[in-house]
Amino acid sequence: MSVVDRQEWDVVVVGAGGAGLRAAIEARERGARTAVICKSLFGKAHTVMAEGGIAAAMGNVNSGDNWEVHFRDTMRGGKFLNQWRMAELHAQEAPQRVWELETWGALFDRTKDGRISQRNFGGHEYPRLAHVGDRTGLELIRTLQQKIVSLQQEDFKETGDYESRLKVFQECTVTRVLKDGSRVSGVFAYDRETGRFFVLEAPAVVIATGGIGKSFKVTSNSWEYTGDGHALALLAGAPLLNMEFVQFHPTGMVWPPSVKGILVTESVRGDGGVLRNSEGKRFMFDYIPDVFKEKYAQSEEEGDRWYEDPDNNRRPPELLPRDEVARAINSEVKAGRGSPHGGVFLDVSTRMPAEVIRRRLPSMYHQFKELADVDITAEPMEVGPTCHYVMGGIAVESDTAAARGVPGLYAAGEVAGGMHGSNRLGGNSLSDLLVFGRRAGLHAAQYAAGLAGGRPPVDDVEIDAAAAEALRPFSAEGQPPGEEEGRPPENPYTLHQELQQTMNDLVGIIRREGEMRQALDKLAELRVRARRAGVEGHRQFNPGWHLALDLRNMLLVSECVARAALERTESRGGHTREDHPAMERAWRRVNLLCRLTDPTGGLAATDPVRGQIDLTRESTDPVRPDLLALFDKEELVKYLAEEELYE
Ligand code: FAD
Question: Which residue from 170, 172, 242, 405 has the fewest beta carbons nearer than 10 Å?
Answer without folding.
Answer: 405
